[in-house]
Amino acid sequence: MKKDVYVIKVYCRKCGTLLYKYRKEGRGHLIKCYKDNIIRDFTRGDLKCPKCGEEFAREAIIHGRPANKIIRGKVFIKS
């Protein structure tokens, strides 16, 4: 069975700056961003918003894949 895959835009909740264009797999909340699914990264790679400096994620290895684990309430998404 094939998962739903679609492109979303991830924004900073504090200032509204675009952080990522991301290829999301499946339905549900954005909990993590697998690094190989990030289409375009608008950050400096330090997991902080480039405009306001708010930390929005932490590095992790999930299911053997490098990922950015999103801190709850720090981002919002749009399709």
Structural overview:
- With about 80 residues, this protein is mostly beta strands.
- The chain has one domain (about 5-79).
- Helices cover about 0% and strands about 50% of the residues.
- β5 and β6 (about 65-70) form a beta hairpin.
- The mean pLDDT is about 95.
Beta-strand content:
over 45%
How confident overall, as mean pLDDT?
94
State the total count of DSSP E strands: 7
- Poorly predicted segments: none
Question: How many domains would you count in the coordinates?
Answer: 1
Total DSSP helices: 0
User: Based on helices, strands and strand pairing, what is the structural class?
Assistant: mainly beta
Radius of gyration: 12 Å
Give the N-terminus to C-terminus distance in angstroms. Answer: 23 Å
Cα shape: globular
Strand order of the largest sheet: 4-2-1-7
Major sheet: size, sense and barrel closure? 4 strands, antiparallel
**Amount of helix:** under 10%
Q: List the helices and strands in order.
A: EEEEEEE
